[in-house]
Please model this.
Amino acid sequence: MSKNKWTEDHIEKTLTDLPKQRDHRSKDDVFEAMMKQAEKSPMPSRRKKRPRPWAVPALASAAAVLLVVLMLPSFMNTGLFSSDQQINMESDSMESQSGNSANIAMNGSDEDSDQEMFSSESNSANEADQPVDNSSEASVNEGTDDSDVENDMNADYSDEGSTGIAAIESEENVEEFQVRQEESLYVTASVQTTEDGSAQYTVLTTEDANGRTLEEALLSVLVESDPTSGNYLSSIEQVTLNDPQAGTITLDFSDENALDSLSSTEALSLEEVLQETLALHKIQEVRFTANGEPLLVGPIGEDTLELSSLNRGYYLVANEQGAAQFVSGRVAQEAMTNGAGDPLNFVETLNQMQDVPEGEWYESAIADSIEIMDVRYEGESAFVIYDATENTTDEELSIFYEAANLTAKYYTLDTLQFVNESAGEVVEYQVQVP
Model:
């Protein structure tokens, strides 16, 4: 074949010069011949080839790369990429641990095991310093059924760290210091009038139980705190607690007309005195009887009185003689709930008691020279860890102890210890009067 390029004219001339080929068969003959040829050798299939899939291999490759990236830090942490020196150190550590295990097995000594358990417990305690479920604090802050708000005492303890005192649940006892035991406290009350005469308020004075039962103490309290003009409470013959149900007190009078002639002001004062002197002992209802029969109370016209169980904290006031007296957070109209609407827990209440705005008619019962460092719980006991400067007086410490003790009575605490670690001093109170 010539290497010359074929042009269209050249191709056309060449085809024209070719001899003519004639097929003498008819169209039908040609068709039959084609059909016979097709039967002998069928034409090959011309199906389209599928394109090779690319999505699945691509996804598989991406997954493999991601897996390697995720596993790489783990390999680094587990020592797969450690240096020879690190590997040798880890090997020595493992051999040492194996030797300790063998010694324990042979000698029957579990000292090392105990140390490991102690270390594990310490780590757990450290982790507990972070926001945790304060189940112990929750049980401490159980309230009574005065209202829906008071029932929900499981404040999540709501940002304990931000309040300035850390409430820590601890199984460790406070260091062995010499403990000074103090008597349980109760309070007597007196109703006073503001300087402008526009309002009345009830102030409290603490008293030592001195071995008396709660019923005996409360009988004395009511007689000493009588706000009526005729001293009608002096005719109370018997005080009965938790009958017919828990949280109930029955005052039985000898005079059937003892409370008939009360004025409206006297009736209100009586309600306040009963509220402030009885509710802190977890009393929710007062029943009045005369010789065992229901006794109606003057303008109230009822033989029972419901008490509120919600109070948070106590504050300091001074009478004309300069003696220390207290008012409850309820009387001072301090906040009873936190931002979440839950009643303040013990730690939150102590924090609030320290922070009294200037210009109030009452002041903090916790002197500026006293700093609460920590609050710990063990069962139904609370440990208030504090520090005090050298110029803190015994009177200031006593006021602090008493105010915190009265506050604790509204929680499910049995004992309250005030621990001054720097001075090695511990003062313990039985919270509830037996």
In short: Residues 36 and 42 are 10 Å apart (CA to CA). The radius of gyration is 45 Å. Residues 178-430 form one domain.
